[in-house]
């Protein structure tokens, strides 16, 4: 078996467990989107074009609350700012790929694919760029197709899912599974603590603007913590 195929299979196996929570996650979004007034094509198109579960949830809920368009866009962008940080972290590994390939990677970049790729690249720094790209796309297979299909399933089911069958657990469970293994430095932990504290403390603000402030506060905390630690080491 070629090194690239081996890397792709390793990527598939690494992200396969995420499919277990992606299924109810996508179904939940499909249900919420249709209950908020989106049609089946609009709901599926939203997932195919955006491919960002957290931002989609935030946007749809704010649309249902008749929030101003600019606030919805700002919130979605704030939620997805982490993708810029993901891209920067992957650039040393995948930045030499052709432009079309980098564009495709950017399209399917998710929390799950980044998490498994970052761990694998740290463990195997000697991999060639082609192997790293193969691993990344292997990790995409259990994530993005499941997201598309589960969204369509949820949109078709709509209100047919009884309230007693709660599937909203999938949202926090997914992000706990992604974030927890990545909290490997004091800066990461400080940012996580501040984000949780601010998000809970500012939950009463209108149009989820507390989420914007929590994201900004967490990023500032992480950056300041790293600066303080570097100064401490130099001193």
TrEMBL record:
Q: Which GO terms describe its cellular component?
A: plasma membrane
* Superkingdom, natural source: Bacteria
The compartments listed are: Cell membrane
Give the membrane topology: Multi-pass membrane protein
Q: What is this protein called?
A: AzlC family ABC transporter permease
Q: Tell whether Hydrolase is among the UniProt keywords.
A: no
Membrane spanning residue stretches:
12-33, 39-60, 67-88, 100-121, 133-154, 160-180, 187-205
This protein's species is Fertoeibacter niger
Q: Which family does it belong to?
A: Belongs to the AzlC family.
- What are its GO biological-process terms? L-valine transmembrane transport
- Taxonomic lineage from the root: Bacteria, Pseudomonadati, Pseudomonadota, Alphaproteobacteria, Rhodobacterales
Q: Which InterPro entries match?
A: Brnchd-chn_aa_trnsp_permease
Which keywords label this protein?
Cell membrane, Membrane, Transmembrane, Transmembrane helix, Transport
């Amino acid at each position: 078996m070629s090194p690239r195929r081996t890397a792709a299979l390793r990527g598939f196996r690494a992200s396969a467990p995420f499919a277990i929570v992606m299924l109810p996650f996508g179904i939940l979004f499909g249900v919420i989107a249709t209950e908020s007034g989106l049609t089946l094509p609009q709901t599926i198109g939203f997932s195919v074009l955006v491919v960002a579960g957290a931002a989609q949830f935030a946007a749809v809920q704010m649309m249902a609350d008749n929030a101003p368009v600019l606030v919805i866009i700002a919130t979605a962008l704030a939620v997805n700012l982490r993708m810029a940080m993901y891209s920067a972290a992957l650039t040393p590994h995948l930045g030499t790929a052709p432009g079309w390939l980098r564009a495709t990677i950017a399209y399917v970049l998710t929390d799950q694919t980044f998490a498994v790729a970052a761990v694998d690249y740290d463990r195997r720094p000697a991999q060639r760029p082609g192997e790293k790209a193969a691993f990344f796309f292997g990790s995409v297979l259990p994530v993005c197709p499941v997201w598309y299909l589960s969204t369509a399933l949820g949109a078709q089911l709509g209100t047919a899912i009884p309230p007693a069958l709660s599937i909203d657990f999938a949202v926090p469970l997914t992000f706990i599974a992604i974030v927890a293994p990545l909290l490997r430095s004091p800066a990461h932990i400080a940012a996580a603590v501040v984000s949780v504290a601010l998000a809970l403390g500012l939950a009463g603000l209108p149009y989820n603007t507390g989420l914007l402030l929590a994201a900004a506060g967490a990023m500032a905390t992480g950056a300041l913590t790293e600066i303080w630690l570097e100064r401490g080491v130099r001193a």
